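Figure caption, in words: inputs first, then the predicted bound structure.
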Amino acid sequence: MNTPENAPLPTGALTLEAARRLAEREGCTVTPTWCGMCGPRSNCAIYAFAKEGRLLRVAGMAEAPQNRGGLCCKAHAAPQWVYSPDRLAAPLRRTGRRGEGKFAPISWEEALDRIARALKEQKEKFGPESLAILSPARRDYSEYLYRFLVAHGSPNYAHSGICAMQMTFAFHYTVGARPVPDCRNADVILVWGKQPVYSGPPLGGASALADARARNARIYAIKPSLEADGAYATDWVPVRPGTDAALALAMLHVVCGEERIDRDFVQTWCYGYERLAEHVRRFTPEWAERVCGVPAAQIAEMARTYAATPRAAIDFGNGLEHAPSAGDALRAIAMLMAVTGHLDRPGCNLLGKPRFDRPSPRSVHIKGRYTRDWVNNIVGPEFPRAFQPFLEGTSACYYRIFQNVLEEKPVIHAIIAPGTQPSVSTRDPRGVLRALEKVDFYAVFDTHRTADMAWADIVLPALTPYEIDHPFLERGPLLMARRRAADPVGQGRSMQQIFLDLGVAMGYGEEFWHGDMEACMNWQLEPPGLTMRDLRAQPLGLRAPACERQYERYAETFTAQSSRLDGGPWLEQGKVALYNTLFEAAGFSPLPEWREPAESLTGTPDLAQSRPFILSDYHTTRCFSAGWQRNVPDLRRLMPFPMLHIHPESAAALGIEDGDEVELRSPHGVVRARAELWPGIRKDTVMMAHGWWQGCAEMNLPDLPLLDGGANVNLLYSPDDKAISDPLISAMGSQTLVSIRKIREN
Ligand code: SF4
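Bound structure (iron/sulfur cluster present):
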């Protein structure tokens, strides 16, 4: 949706007519469908070409409004992913010790029966809350996981604590919605903690920045390390990892102290301005410079430029969600938008996404069943119980599910990992593996071999999105069926079908359409008056007209009802919560504060003597999302080894050259990586990619150890929940201090 309709089509994009001509010429089939290579979820529409039921390649769908034929490099590697030697082809039962990796194939009937027996027994013995499902980021099947948990009676949906929900919570409870940057109309853009080139590139983030640059917009890139996005930035603001709250508070200090505010907006629509202004007096740019490493003059200049420019937007990203003061940073950023009058005006941050004139299909979630008892049974809540359920439903913190298993009297006795790999996805991999040894029942449902599958009692094989004909997807104006483009590998089933079948095996068949996926989708499509048959008859899906955008919808947004059980508003006073009375009543700070990361140059200076570099990690790189797809040769060729971005001068001081193998040592573990000399990174900071463990059989690259000696960056962070987590939104810090030494020359 972000891509302008009159822009030239990307190279390689095809129309339906061209795709059909090509397929005819090459003697293959072509299927309009959705890409399935995205870690989070499908966003881009494709034409999939196959011969004799085997996927050959894909091309971007030129007619699709959101990607207009654009695809990232992951999309083109789909056939290698589908036919990887790592694919799971049959249900498996563990036959060896946990962690040993010995399995025997079993039938679907036996596998579902074993899972259902274990869950029923535990429900009876320990209560339904004894089951936790680990969230695999946001996927096209996430609502099915929630439905299963609710039908079972458990509130323990375990969110990662580092992705999307943290910022969504902070913004809703400060300005009533998650504001969307209107970069296409902005003259100043602060790209903060975000990598717009590699994350969701076809969705238009990068093209919006390129357009802005062509208009001579000023673009600040606020992050410790610049990558391809450096090409769009006019200014680099090299903030230390995990210190964004200090930077944002200092910007508020400048804006409030110099009265660079929109007085009318503040008087009419903000609550608690005087207390905020008083509070931020102590967060001077000079103080912030010591903490976050950004020169005081640059902080003040950026704050003044943002405040003085009528069309100025903040494009915030996932990098802001990984620190013990993440919630404070996000709230302070929301306050900056508000007090400077940059909310819901053209070129600023808009309250809410564009709307389309079509009733939305039903969700399969059954949120209406939540009660106070339900909320009380959450283990290690992601957000305080007073604020549960949040938008998606009740949520536990992923990391705390494992901590609970390790406690003397655990609540959690069964864990299902559907498309997620806890030993590389969350903090304290040692603790995760100990918990997987100890938990009574562990099941893995996935398309491919996973990092911790060897600990599972039962493994179920899932199909990739290219092998299934569901679910339909709604993205922006487009509602389009997913179509099967290739024959299924082995005996796999879709993740949606697995949860329907498990529901039936548990005796919840009434709530799971008795396992009939078509009936489930037809029920979902009732509000727009459609059936799957209707939708499949439209090769390019159905497009809804856009509703006209209204600006300055303050009264409507600031009084909107929350998702809490009490149904009260997000904003108690019907105004922007500069001073948050809801948080205060629940025992949290009403104003944004500053907390040091667990290990940092300014917070633990003694440790910095022996471990002089700040380490943090990227969740998305140019070819990988999180822990996915290291087994795909075409992607792996682009990034064959775990890399460490290090500034050339810092490397030279350690005698390290490009490509040398290095060892990183934190107080918590030791990992190895290849040095990649990177001029666009702070000299006191190094960055790795998250999620490394998987080998690539086609390239003779072996799996890496999950613990010491591998490249699992989570091993290096503190496992102390209190020290690493934001007390309100459970954001987990991804900062520590490391020493680095060369262990092998390139
Ligand atoms: S961003 Fe890339 S992997 Fe994700 S849906 Fe689009 S093309 Fe596919």
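The chain has 26 helices and 28 strands.
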